[in-house]
């Protein structure tokens, strides 16, 4: 890893550590944090898992649904600098969607402080509408392999999760991965997540498994 990459990783990790302190305090329940100010972030071990997975995949194009303040997005960005094959960092490698302007503003600040704003594009808007738009763009040129994503992370509202998955499936490449957060926790989500898992596991061109890390991650591989 070059000195440039080491400096980039160090800068990202500094912001991640600051956000981790906030997230730990939030999860402890020892302080009153409004829903507007809460991170609702993935856990630290989930972030490390993503970084390892993405580095091993040499993923170059990633879509995230549910930015919040950018904690998971930063772990995704970290994977690019871990990977020696990172000559592709001249464009927006990560697209992330959120409809909360306050959290989008916080995320933009975190990306700037981490030095990764050049490789991340935030789309502010309704996730379902944005995904439909992105999916339609892929359908217009289905033979253009550059349009397809290597990795898609779903971490937004659970009510539309089945639709998110189906749209994501149309945009992820063969051999690409869709990851869904909160499959196991919080427990109040379990009825919804059970129906969701039943939906995706009926698809004969998807291989899917639950990984009991963090709040539970469903790893779904598009096999054709």
Automatic annotation (TrEMBL):
GO molecular function per UniProt: O-methyltransferase activity; S-adenosylmethionine-dependent methyltransferase activity
Gene Ontology biological process: methylation
Keywords: Methyltransferase, S-adenosyl-L-methionine, Transferase
Pfam families for this protein: Methyltransf_3
InterPro entries recorded: Cation-dep_OMT (IPR050362), SAM-dependent_MTases_sf (IPR029063), SAM_O-MeTrfase (IPR002935)
Keyword Phosphoprotein: no
PANTHER family the UniProt entry points to: CAFFEOYL-COA O-METHYLTRANSFERASE 3-RELATED, O-METHYLTRANSFERASE-RELATED
Annotated protein name in UniProt: Putative O-methyltransferase
